[in-house]
Write a structure and sequence with these properties.
Order of helices and strands: EEEEEEEEEE
Structural class: mainly beta
Strand content: over 45%
Protein name: DUF4489 domain-containing protein
CATH topology: Jelly Rolls
Radius of gyration: 18 Å
CATH architecture: Sandwich
Shape: elongated
Oligomer: single chain
Number of helices: 0
Helix content: under 10%
Organism: Chengkuizengella axinellae
């Protein structure tokens, strides 16, 4: 019988204990796209191949003032060979308790099926952007744990 070669899975994952204070946290700067995970896959038969992409990031937000509602916007993009194939604009709202500074955590994720991969090596990048940098209520936005997984399926 032999070993079945498909589907082929490749992944990059980073786990952190504390999304607010860990050496592996990536702190986002305003309006600066930042690659937080990358995987490379080889496609031999693009007309018969789909690449299923699963991604997750842990967003850690530090509040700079207490008791105020806050809205911030982030963009999550999935790139194939430096070309965007999926984009999510995520507006997040939270409110810290009165008289307390507050940390907020969210776990956005999204699956994507790339139905048109090109023959040869394909590099998939998960890119996060802090769209607004001047929120007076936000001290920092960091990407803690994160994962990008590509499953190559040939029919």
């Amino acid at each position: 019988m032999g070993i079945k070669e498909e589907p082929f899975v490749v992944a990059q994952s980073v786990s952190v204990d504390n999304p607010f204070n860990d050496p592996d946290v990536i702190f986002l700067q305003g309006n600066t796209p930042t690659t937080v995970a990358t995987v490379d896959v080889c496609v031999k038969q693009p007309q018969r191949t789909q690449v299923c992409i699963d991604s997750m990031v842990q967003v850690g937000v530090g509040a700079s003032t207490a008791g105020n509602p806050t809205t911030f916007v982030m963009t999550y993009e999935l790139f194939r060979n430096n070309t965007p194939i999926a984009t999510i604009n995520d507006e997040m709202d939270y409110s810290s308790p009165p008289n307390e500074t507050f940390n907020y955590t969210n776990f956005p994720n999204f699956p994507v099926v790339d139905k048109d991969p090109i023959a040869g090596n394909n590099s998939y990048d998960l890119v996060c952007t802090r769209v607004t940098a001047n929120e007076s209520e936000v001290a920092f936005i960091g990407i803690g744990s994160r994962s990008l997984k590509a499953t190559v399926i040939t029919s």
